[in-house]
Specification:
Helix content: over 70%
Shape: elongated
Largest sheet: 2 strands, antiparallel
Order of helices and strands: HEEHH
Strand content: 5-15%
Distance between the termini: 71 Å
Number of strands: 2
Radius of gyration: 19 Å
Number of domains: 1
Structural class: mainly alpha
Number of helices: 3
Length: 105
C-alpha cells in the first residue's frame, strides 16, 4: 500500500471513529462496553463540532474523495442530530399537553 493510500485509510478510519461515537451518543447504537443504549446529545454535538473543526482545518489538504467522505459523514450526523432533537421536542410537548389535560380534570 502506498503511503498516500495508507494516510487516506487512516484519515477515513479516524472520521469513522468520530461517526461511531456520535451515533452512540445520539442513542442510535449501543455502547459496546455497557451493551446499552446511552444518550447524550451534548456529547453528540461536541463530536459533530469536532468533525466540523477537522473539516475546516484540513480544507485544501484533502483529496476530493476524502473531502466528500468527511462532508457526507458530517451531513449524516447533523441530520440524525436534528431528528433526535425533534424527538425530545415532541416528548416535551406531549408531556406538557398531558399535564395541561390533567389540570383540566
Amino acid at each position: 500500500m502506498a503511503e498516500s493510500e495508507k494516510e487516506t485509510a487512516l484519515f477515513m478510519g479516524l472520521a469513522l471513529m468520530f461517526h461511531a461515537a456520535a451515533m452512540q451518543h445520539m442513542g442510535k447504537t449501543k455502547n459496546p462496553l455497557s451493551d446499552k443504549i446511552e444518550r447524550s446529545l451534548d456529547q453528540a454535538q461536541f463530536v459533530i463540532d469536532t468533525l466540523d473543526a477537522l473539516a475546516s482545518k484540513t480544507k485544501g489538504n484533502l483529496s476530493d474523495e476524502e473531502s466528500r467522505f468527511l462532508a457526507n459523514i458530517i451531513k449524516e450526523l447533523k441530520l440524525n442530530y436534528v431528528e433526535e432533537l425533534g424527538k425530545d421536542e415532541a416528548q416535551k410537548s406531549g408531556s406538557a399537553e398531558s399535564s395541561a389535560s390533567e389540570k383540566k380534570d
